[in-house]
Specification:
elongated; 517 residues; alpha+beta; 6-stranded mixed sheet
Length: 517
């Protein structure tokens, strides 16, 4: 029989003259092949090897949890450094029943955050995902604090019924950084210290690999030196949204917005979504694209395609908006989509003088802060915007009015009306939170702002386990997603602070499930 012949062959190798160098080479070659198979295909040994595509907050949250649960992790990011758009976040992360809220005496609940998020989503957000987002919000804030991130300052941003958006207080001296940069710096430092994590930057994942059973088993990738394949027991997609994919996904799903500037980096091109769609993951709510009402106009380059975000916290601490007639026209703390619509409806285009020529820019409004608002936001943090040329200072409202050829009386009237509404507790735009009063004689900090594409709510539909759902609404085996690459949490409109929150909540879930499923 075959077994007898095999046994005789083995006996011959070790007892006869057939034991030659060629035989030895054969044995060692076979052994090497087996060892390589074990190393490159962790399924053979049941080793958990998780591949994370994208090194922003969602990706690093997933990586940390996967390591904590016993996996080895390989992170790919097509940029030279980790961080993504998460490093640019400036308003903060939402959390309920946190220590900062207790210290500030804020009475908040998970139900209120759920209510605010569902209301903002216009009935299009998946309620189970929203409930999970809210119930895990305190744990998400504590998770970041455990890495040394300070989240001790609160803002009440647009669409929120309570102050719950957490960031670090700006230092009184020295250079301040936005909260996204502080968060990512802390997590990158931690992840880079983990021996069970491999990080490959400037490495773009180009394809998701499946086996004959339809299970995800790895990825193909490329860098400056060539292409390759990496196999794993799970793949987590955290490569962000498509705010910069003007000629691609934006033109296809939101063509009316594709010409707008964006606050996202040029790397936000929806790569993860495109790859997942090719293996059977339908794209979900792709026409839901958020235009943030306030990005800074650089007077030296008003039509720049990429703009700096004017954080919602600037309005949360008391900033107000005026149009070119010196009139308020909206609730500065209203929903982002409503405030954006009001800017387009009530404001004129920006005009910049360049020599003898006048360059026409985008529609704009003035964002105005007084000293109290600046102090609450943090002068050291505001100084970064000033160094970029985004903010001008004026001794009082009269000098501001004169510089913009606005009747001084109109500015004064707007301030007086605002102060009266503050005393009454509500204005005719529906605003009921007034952080400051304005004095016509005080120093003003003024910037030009315009709406820009900021966030894409559409993407890969996920389950409560962060599993990517296929065409039949069943999970695609071994494929997970979190952060802006996913969809279903926000619906029509995203609330400030919910982006960093979803990155941590669903990134952590994806990391845990990628190991335990």
């Amino acid at each position: 029989c075959i077994r007898d012949r095999y046994q005789r062959r083995v006996r011959d190798i070790f007892t006869t003259s057939t034991f030659s160098m060629r035989t030895i080479a054969f044995i060692f070659g076979a052994a090497l092949i087996v060892l390589l198979a074990l190393y490159f295909n962790p399924r053979v040994t049941q080793e958990k090897r998780v591949i994370v595509v994208g090194g922003g907050l969602a990706g690093l949250s997933a990586a940390i949890e996967a390591v904590r649960h016993g996996a080895r992790v390989i992170i790919f990011d097509k940029e030279k450094r980790l961080g993504g758009n998460s490093a640019k976040a400036s308003s903060g992360i939402n959390g309920v029943r946190t220590e900062a809220q207790k210290v500030a005496g804020v009475d908040d609940t998970e139900d209120l955050l759920i209510k605010d998020t569902l209301k903002s989503g216009d009935g299009l957000a998946d309620e189970p995902l929203v409930k999970l987002l809210a119930s895990e919000s305190k744990a998400a804030v504590d998770f970041l604090i455990s890495f040394g991130v300070k989240l001790d300052t609160l803002s009440q941003c647009g669409g929120h019924s309570r102050p719950r958006t957490h960031r670090a207080a700006a230092p009184k001296q020295g250079r301040a950084a936005n909260i996204g940069f502080e968060i990512m710096s802390a997590l990158i430092k931690h992840v880079e210290s983990l021996p069970s994590v491999e990080i490959y930057t400037s490495s773009k994942v180009t394809e998701i690999l499946k086996n004959e059973l339809g299970e995800v088993i790895g990825v193909k990738h490329e860098n400056g030196t060539g292409t390759g394949s990496t196999f794993g027991t799970a793949v987590v997609l955290t490569a962000g949204g498509y705010s910069s994919d003007r000629a691609g996904l934006l033109s296809k799903y939101a063509p009316s917005l594709s010409k707008l500037s964006t606050t996202s980096g040029p790397f936000a091109t929806g790569d993860a979504m495109k790859m997942a769609e090719k293996i059977g993951a339908p794209l979900y709510q792709m026409d839901k694209v958020q235009v943030h009402p306030t990005s800074f106009i650089d007077p030296k380059d008003p039509n720049a395609g990429t703009k700096f975000l004017a954080a919602e916290a600037l309005r949360g601490v008391g900033g107000i908006m005026l149009n070119s007639q010196g009139k308020r026209f909206t609730n500065e703390l209203g929903r982002r989509d409503v405030t954006t619509e009001d800017i387009f409806k009530h404001c004129n285009t920006f005009k910049a003088k360049k020599g003898d020529q006048v360059e026409e820019g985008p529609v704009f409004a003035y964002l105005i802060l007084n000293q109290k608002a600046v102090d609450d936001f943090g002068l050291t943090l505001l100084s970064f915007y000033q160094s970029k040329g985004f903010i001008e200072t004026f001794e009082n409202s009269s000098t501001f009015a004169a510089s913009q050829s606005i009747p001084e009386a109109d500015i004064h009237q707007s301030f007086e009306e605002y102060n009266r509404h503050k005393a009454e507790g509500k204005d005719h735009f529906g605003k009921n939170v007034f952080a400051v009063s304005f004095d016509i004689h005080e120093k003003l900090y003024v910037s030009y702002i315009t709406p820009s594409i900021h966030y894409t709510m559409g993407g890969l539909h996920i389950s409560e386990k962060s599993e990517v759902l296929g065409t039949n609404q069943l999970p695609i085996k071994n494929l997970f997603a979190a952060g802006e690459a996913s969809a279903g949490i926000h619906g029509q409109n995203r609330l400030a602070g919910n982006s960093l929150l979803e990155c941590v909540v669903f990134g952590r879930i994806a990391g845990i499930q990628s190991v335990s499923s």
